[in-house]
Write a structure and sequence with these properties.
Strand content: 15-25%
Structural class: alpha/beta
Strand order of the largest sheet: 4-10-9-8-7-5-6
CATH architecture of the largest domain: 3-Layer(aba) Sandwich
Bound molecules: pyridoxal-5'-phosphate
Number of domains: 2
CATH class of the largest domain: Alpha Beta
Helix content: 40-55%
Length: 420
């Protein structure tokens, strides 16, 4: 197997991602907005969907719709097979050891809440500490604050430096006998920083502390291998990975998931119910109460099939070139300050002007057909760290082009004229 991976012909390496072909797979990109071609640079919020994902959803509702796991009839068996096949694809995609480690949830937010409420409430007690970082999305802060209120545990925060990188020495200092869990993002949604999670997991494991990685912004850009990272939990959302909204994944190490009680009670998560005692279902169903987002799971499987049909090295090379190009082009704009200048970055350029509010920049860009995000990006502590109320954020996906970045730059220059 190893050998097969290593045989890469020079011809293959020299091939670039065929972006025109990729763009043709995403029908929404052909649209005009305010009479201008859509330039979609809000991929950090949600990515667009390839036609194959739309077709998978369509096919499911047109020909396969049925509830899963409980039916004995043809459609139910077919829907169950398709849903479980999607779980297998996701298992392979993140290289989990077993499909029992792949839990379907609504998204990253629900995955983190699941761990906080199930693992956290079972194993944390007053005085214990949970470490997060100063660059977390609110969904990797608030569930832990709720848990702290419930258990008497305390939240500790790894600071970030002026480039938007984690201060690892501070992390080492924060890790102690009291630490019972570390929960960090893999890639910052506000800054684009790639966090050295493998090293952080290693440091935590030296103290037998489990680590949750918030992979919401990582999976669309990086090849994620949960065994290589050696993390204990890995959370991500389908909708940022070219799949449907309302579906996401919690990967959990089998031993930990086994030791955790259910997060929610209901149908499908049981094996036997009596009024005296209920026996829970095996993994992963123990954590999947109620009818899930069946079409969403199947759609996410289709998104993964789509990605696996592309050459990952070409995708990452293309995205790296885009980010480099965008960073250089924006740096040239007078008065523009990039927030987040980490050495290891992916997918995001956030910026501010001293005299123009991010929302105003976003509104002018919208008139030019350019979709960006302006605000605090659900990461208010990051804004506080950099002393800004908001940033304008351009976030990229594999279908974006240099030409689109040129349009972004022109739009920013127009905003500068308007607010001169
Ligand atoms: C880093 C990060 N974590 C978590 C989330 C929450 O994801 P969702 O709203 O899909 O649950 C996001 C969404 O932007 C994110 O960027």
């Amino acid at each position: 197997m190893k050998v097969a991976h290593e045989i890469v012909t020079p011809k293959h390496l020299s091939k670039r991602l065929d972006v025109d072909k990729v763009r043709a797979d995403f029908p929404i990109l052909k649209q005009k907005i305010h009479g201008k071609p859509l330039v979609y640079l809000d991929n950090g919020a949600t990515s667009q969907k390839p036609q194959v994902v739309v077709e998978a959803l369509n096919r499911y509702y047109t020909a396969e719709n049925s509830n899963i796991h409980r039916g004995v009839h043809f459609l139910s068996e077919q829907a169950t097979a398709a849903y479980e096949a999607a779980r297998q694809k996701i298992k392979r995609f993140v290289n989990a050891r077993s499909e029992q480690e792949i839990i379907f949830v609504r998204g990253t937010t629900e995955a983190i809440n699941l761990v906080a409420q199930s693992y956290g409430r079972t194993f944390l007690k007053p005085g214990d500490e949970i470490i997060v970082s100063a660059m977390e999305h609110h969904s990797n802060i608030v569930p832990w604050q709720i848990l702290c209120e419930q258990t008497g545990a305390r939240l500790r925060v790894i600071p970030i430096n002026h480039d938007g990188e984690l201060v690892l020495d501070e992390y080492r200092r924060l890790l102690s006998q009291k630490t019972k869990l570390v929960s960090v993002t893999h890639v910052s949604n506000a800054l684009g920083t790639i966090v050295p999670v493998k090293e952080m997991v290693h440091l935590a494991h030296e103290r037998q502390v489990p680590v949750l990685v918030d992979g919401a912004q990582a999976v669309p850009h990086l090849k994620v291998d949960v065994q290589e990272l050696d993390c204990d939990f890995y959370a991500f959302s389908g909708h940022k990975l070219f799949g449907p909204t309302g579906v996401g994944i919690l990967y959990g190490r089998l031993e930990l998931l086994d030791a955790m009680p259910p997060y929610q009670g209901g149908g499908d998560m049981i094996s036997l119910v009596t009024f005296e005692k209920t026996h829970y279902n095996v993994l992963p169903y123990k954590f999947e109460a109620g009818t899930p987002h069946i079409a969403g799971g199947i759609g996410l499987g289709a998104a993964i099939d789509y990605l696996e049909g592309l050459e990952w090295q070409q995708v990452t090379a293309h995205e790296h070139a885009l980010l480099t190009y965008a960073t250089a082009a924006l740096t040239d704009i007078k008065g523009l300050r990039i927030i987040g200048t980490a050495k290891e970055k992916v997918g995001v350029v956030s910026f501010v002007f001293d005299h123009i509010h991010a929302h105003d920049v976003g509104t002018i860009l919208d008139q030019e057909g350019v979709a960006v995000r302006a605000g605090h990006h659900c990461a208010m502590p990051v804004m506080q760290r950099f002393g800004v109320p908001a940033t304008t954020r351009a976030s990229f996906a594999l279908y974006n082009t240099r030409h689109e970045i040129d349009i972004l730059v022109k739009g920013i220059q127009r905003a500068l004229e308007v607010f001169a």
